[in-house]
Amino acid sequence: MELEQAVRGAAVAATAALEAEAAIRPLRDQDAAASAVLGRLALEKDRLDRDLEQAQIEVKRLTVELERLAEDDTRESARLDDAAGALARLDAEAEALRTEIDAAPERAPSLEAAAEAAGAASAQADGEVERLAARLAAVDAEERAAAGRLAEAEARLARAQAALAQTLAELEGLDSAPAIVGDDAAASLNAALEALSSARTEMDTAEAGRGAAQAEEARAREAVRSTQDELASAAAEARALASLTTAPGGGGFAPALDGIAPHPGLEAALAAALGDELDAGLDPRAPAFWAGAQVVSPAWPKEAVPLAELVAAPAQLAARLAYTAVVEAKDGPRLQADLPPGASLVSHQGDLWRWDGYTAMAEAPRPAQARLEHRARLAALETQLATLAPAAQDAARAHGKTVTAAEAAEVRLRAARGAVSAAEAAAAEARETLETHQRELDRRDTRAGWLAEARQRLEPETREAQGGVAFCQAELAKARLDHGLDAHLQTARAAGATAREAASRARLELDAELRERAGRERRLAALIAESKEWRARSEAATHRRQDLGRARDAATAALAVAEQAPVRAEDRRAALLDQLAAAEARKAQALDALTLAETRRGEADRTARAAEGRAADAREARAALDARLEAAQERLAEQVRALAESDGATADLEPGDSDIAANDCEPGAAEAALAALERERDTMGAVNLRAEEEAGELAARVADLAAERADLAGALGKLRQGVGELNAEARTRLLAAFDVIHGHFRDLFVTLFQGGQAELRLVESEDPLEAGLEILACPPGKRMAVMSLMSGGEQALTAMALIFAVFLSNPAPVCVLDEADAPLDDANVERFCDLLAAMRARAATRFIVITHNALTMSRMDRLYGVTMREAGVSQLVSVDLRQAESMAAT
Fold this sequence. Notes:
Elements: H1 2-103, H2 108-176, H3 183-245, E1 261-262, H4 267-274, E2 305-306, E3 311-312, H5 318-322, E4 324-326, H6 332-336, E5 344-346, E6 352-354, E7 359-360, H7 367-479, H8 485-647, H9 655-664, H10 668-684, H11 691-753, E8 757-763, E9 772-778, E10 785-786, H12 792-809, E11 814-818, H13 826-843, E12 846-850, H14 854-858, E13 862-870, E14 873-880, H15 881-889
Parallel strand pairs: 4-5, 11-12
Antiparallel strand pairs: 1-3, 2-4, 5-6, 6-7, 8-9, 9-10, 13-14
Helix pairs in contact: 1-8, 2-7, 2-8, 3-7, 4-7, 8-9, 11-12, 11-13
């Protein structure tokens, strides 16, 4: 009865849950529809807001447009008024001017005749004046010429006398000056050249010593690196083996394996004999330990060697080792049958033959064998480390000595270079002194010869000049005689002036008349042209006013339409807001109804689950009762059969009697035992029917992992060896490249700075692969310092020297330089261009220089540029400077 009620309640609850779920679906559809309507109305509202804003903007634009059109109409109306006033004024002025032209008399013919007569009289008077002036001018010219010739002759005489006196004075000065002797300068030059040769010899010796010291330091550094790499590799392998040889587990007790020392090569045999038992401890407190036993050595055949004789082990393992012997792999199967109980045979390869017939070949995995091999390798590595550590220290000390020697050689080389620079400066100074003395001597000889020639030339010139002065004085006295031409010339000039004034007045009157008539005609033409221009302006203004009127009408109509658009938009917006409020209300109602329905469905689901749980409990209780009834009936039947067998009679019981007997039986003890067995079964869990297969799969997986681990260990060793070889090769190549670049850098620095010295150093690490680069530079006249302490131009030149040094170590056929000369001044640009020319000849490289510096452009072979002769059309222009220079020269 209780079960039926529970099942009925569960069915009712499930039906209620289904009805709640069915009621949710239309509510969800209503909520989705309300959301869609609300979204559509929101989008429509946004669109109306944008339309309203656009309509307001259009109203403002049209209002501004109408204001502008009104201003333009006012301006054009003013222009029409101006044109009307100007046309009236011009027409009145033109009419007055025509009247004046018509009323003016014709005086031009009489004025032209008077001007011609006055001109003829003036020409006749001017001819007389010119004739007399020409005669007087000829006389005056002759006198002036005579005076000029006399002055010139006197000046020539004075110059000749002065030049002769200066020549004689210089000759006397040259004769009285002490002779210039250059013997001391020549001796100084020879001594300086000898000192320079000696300094260069010492510098070559120092460079050779520095090279040898650097080579020795490189070899020592390589030895240190090799020893340290070998030491680090051995230490890393020893640490790894130490971690691998640590016995797992043991509760902190040392395994017996730690006290065993087999002979080399017996690791596999010992692992085959003892196996995982090597992990057992020697302390009795350990979970698994060796306690030891009485040693009774069995009789071994002659082919067998007792393992105890080949292994040093604790006493606790003596009995086990006494019953194990080492044989050859081929003899093991034959001798296995004769083994006494407890005895075992092993081979060097790790094969095992036991007295009870158990055989394990060497191919079977044995972790203990790997640990024994690791222990043997660890012992060898410890011996190697004990040898490598002192060797590494000795190599480091030797490297330190080579570094000190290299630094000392570097110091000696710097001193030698300084001495060479000083000797070169002294030699240059002595050579300059000697050359100065020689030039002065040559100059004196040349000057003396020239003065002698000048004396020979000036003495005759002086005598000739004295004769010329006397002749010119006689000519001047003759030319100064009075001929009476001055008075006649004054009279002719007065008559000519009167005739010219009359002719000038006549021409002025004629010109005034002609200018007045021409001016009136030009003014009339100008007034006509200006009238035409003003009429054209008036017509244009009229057309513009008509256009403006049409545009104003169109803008007014558009404004009226645009002003109605915001009103219509506001009406639509108000209606839309009402619809939006209604949609939001429907959305809220649908959401509330959906929430209530989901709440009811949840309650119905919980009620259904609770009812289903009660029904399940009732069914389980019913099943338990049925089982108990069936068990009681079976026990009753067994008891009846037992009674029948014991009494010799057959008991026929009715079903009703069986039910009564079952109800009267008490099965408490049997049920308690059954419940206990069931709990034990549940505690054990489910039976794994694939345990054996899984064990085999795991064993294969372990074997694969062991093989992969061995492969990885081998690959790791090869990788470390390869990395070491690559590092060694990289160090060698880096140092070689560094030496080459260092040499180029020093030479290019001296070339760019015209002196000084510079160095590249590897700093912050002894390993070149990890070291940094430091640039030390010493321009002429300064001390050696790092690059960061130099000026901007010096830094640019130093960086340029380094870049070209790297380029020279591996030249390319083409090199592009983009604004490389930008931070340089003109002097340094010259050096930069000289360096490019030298690099081109040295490396056969074509340089493409992008620059804005005119000096750099002038030193190039060919120029390329881009010009724009027409708007938007670029053209590439190329100029061969060598060809241009040759064309300019011709």
